[in-house]
Design goal:
This protein is mostly helical and 216 residues long. The protein has a domain of 111 residues: Ribosomal protein L20, C-terminal domain (c-terminal domain of poly(a) binding protein), CATH 1.10.1900. The chain contains nine helices and no strands. Helix 1 crosses helix 2.
């Protein structure tokens, strides 16, 4: 494979990292490997710090505005609410600068906010215009002035008669078939009895046989 050289790009990159690490402790400002690690870590903290800075300054402005409003016996929340009712759009940075450098102008803003809070609520023109006037009721027609067609149309129609339903015929009752089936099954189950056989009468022994028995 052909050999590829970076030329001056390598040197410029190293010089850029080392220039950012200027003033760091010991090898972090001298050696490129340690300088690169230190610069990456510092950029991470710088990213977080740029956002924390906005929060810190906003809380500082609110603290200044609240302290200046308390001198005029008005809380911070009521002061901001009054400015909103008076339709005065000033951000907190400008209000804090006025509270620090121009107390008279800030006092006038406080008076306007108090007046807007104490004033009754205004009815907007949009709400008034949205209400449409009610239409006047039509005059009732005088008797005799109606035409015969209108009289026929206004007359109520008689209710239509509903067709009467035909009377239902009574159904013929069927005999229960269960009794017949049960009787037939019993007849099939019981076998027919056989006639009893007559026993033959016992034969009487003859007298000769009795004499033979005594002789013996």
């Amino acid at each position: 494979m052909p050999r590829v050289k970076r030329g001056s790009n390598r040197r410029q990159k190293r010089k850029k990292i080392l220039s950012r690490a200027k003033g760091y402790f010991q090898a972090k400002s001298k050696l490129y490997r340690y300088a690169r690690e230190a610069v990456d870590r510092s950029e991470k903290f710088a990213y977080i710090g740029r956002r924390l800075k906005k929060r810190d300054f906003r809380s500082l402005w609110i603290t200044r505005i609240g302290a200046a409003a308390e001198q005029h016996s008005l809380s911070y929340s009521r002061f901001i609410y009054g400015l909103k009712l008076a339709e005065i759009d000033l951000n907190r940075k400008m209000l804090s600068e006025m509270a620090v450098s121009d107390a008279d102008s800030f006092g006038k803003l406080v008076e306007l906010a108090k007046a807007a809070i104490e004033a009754p609520p205004k009815t907007t023109q949009a709400a008034a215009s949205s209400e449409t006037p009610k239409a006047a009721p039509e005059p009732a027609p005088t008797p005799g002035s109606e035409s015969p067609a209108e009289v026929e149309a206004a007359a109520p129609e008689p209710p239509a008669e509903e067709p009467k339903a035909a009377p239902k015929k009574p159904r013929a009752r069927k005999k229960p078939a269960a009794a017949d089936e049960s009787s037939e099954s019993k007849a099939d189950a019981q076998p027919a009895k056989k006639p009893a056989k007559k026993r033959a009468p016992a034969k009487k022994k003859s007298a000769a046989s009795k004499d033979d028995a005594t002789d013996t």
